[in-house]
Amino acid sequence: MLFSGLAEVGDDPILQVSTMYKASNDPNKVDLGVGVYKDADGNTAILKSVKKAEQYLVDHQDTKTYLSPAGNPEFNRLVQDMLIGADHPAVGENRVSTYQTPGGTGGVRIGLDFVKACNPNANVWISNPTWPNHTAITKSLGLNPKQYRYYDIKQGVFQYQEMFEDLSGAEEGDVVILHGCCHNASGADLTNAQWDELAAMMLEKGLVPLVDFAYQGFGDGIEEDTYAAKIMSTKLPEALIASSCSKNFAMYRDRAGAITLVSSDATEHKKNASHMLSAVRATYSMPPDHGAAVVAHILGTPALKAEWIAEVDEMRERVKKMRHLFVEKMNEKAPNSGFGYIAEQKGMFSYLTLTAEQIQTLINKHSIFFMGNGRVNVAGLTEKNIDYVTDAVASLFRS
Ligand code: LMR
């Protein structure tokens, strides 16, 4: 029988945390698992700017006929502008295109599908640690995953030198997945000077960046967070940027994202673009409309765009505040617990530098749900649950 004989595969480890959280009956349970933003009341609310854009679409959208494999052209233009700027040299040279995809995951998938068309045996370098789906997508396409050191979870140390060293051993044409900002899962980012140095080394070695840019706005700001995407796509002749509107527009389930392709010249780009669109057509034919239509309306309406940026700023500042509050409380409750680094890191995630046993105690005894490797979604902390969480973490440091 064709359908018998498969071994069962486990859920993705992030989705497992959501399942455990939902199954728990503990009234004190805390969800620090999947990367969604939560407000001070613990809700993942719809942004006001998004609601206004949705109302606009209800009133004005007059057809639901097919888009095209490339998706909404206005969305593509405005998102590209937000990622790399309309003054990017590749724009004037007709060697960059952005395609709407179902979420940032769709962007990574189509980007790697395109890599496969270029070289079916390509090596894809992935940070250790990373978002588990990077490896899953690479493997499911039959590409060859390789790891570069990035963050020592046990010691809580960013490993830039080690990253540089590992990538120096990559071969010409290898693809390197880089986190554009707010590294998922460590929250440890390169400085601008380190991005410059890395781009120079990658240029010299002929490596190709795939910048996964899922948290734009959660580091330092929408514009401030573009440094890596811009440097990698200007200093290097070829680049891919997978981007997501899930977090910064809080439109998780609407699956709005994009893949941006930069080729070395306009002639190559025309051919490359045809492969990109053929990968889309063979995978899901065309992306879904709604999320991208909302984003296009917001980005294309100056007053609404300003309102949205203020909402992104508010989300980012709340997460930062919770990072500081966590460190402050831990300093009071367990002075030698050593979590100071959490205040310096960026975006939704950080690791709690704890033993596997301590992590299991927090999950099983205190119903604080997060990844078994210690990754927490800091955006799940609120003023209401911070004492519960920090009391539980502090209890691990008492003998
Ligand atoms: C996460 O890392 O938790 C998010 O990117 C959500 C996801 O799809 O895994």
Account of the 3D structure:
The strands form 4 sheets. A 7-stranded mixed sheet has the order 2-10-9-8-7-3-4, sandwiched between helices. Strands 1-12 form a two-stranded parallel ribbon. Helices cover 45% and strands 14% of the residues. The chain has 399 residues and is α/β, with parallel strands linked by helices. Helix 2 runs antiparallel to helix 12. The protein is built from 15 helices and 13 strands. It has 2 domains: 13-45 and 316-395, Aspartate Aminotransferase, domain 1; 66-300, Type I PLP-dependent aspartate aminotransferase-like (Major domain) (Aspartate Aminotransferase, domain 2, 3-Layer(aba) Sandwich). Strand 7 (175-179), helix 8 (192-205) and strand 8 (208-213) form a beta-alpha-beta unit. The longest helix has 32 residues, at 302-333. The radius of gyration is 21 Å and the shape is globular. The N and C termini lie far apart (57 Å). The structure holds (2S)-2-hydroxybutanedioic acid. (2S)-2-hydroxybutanedioic acid is lined by residues 14, 34-35, 131, 184.
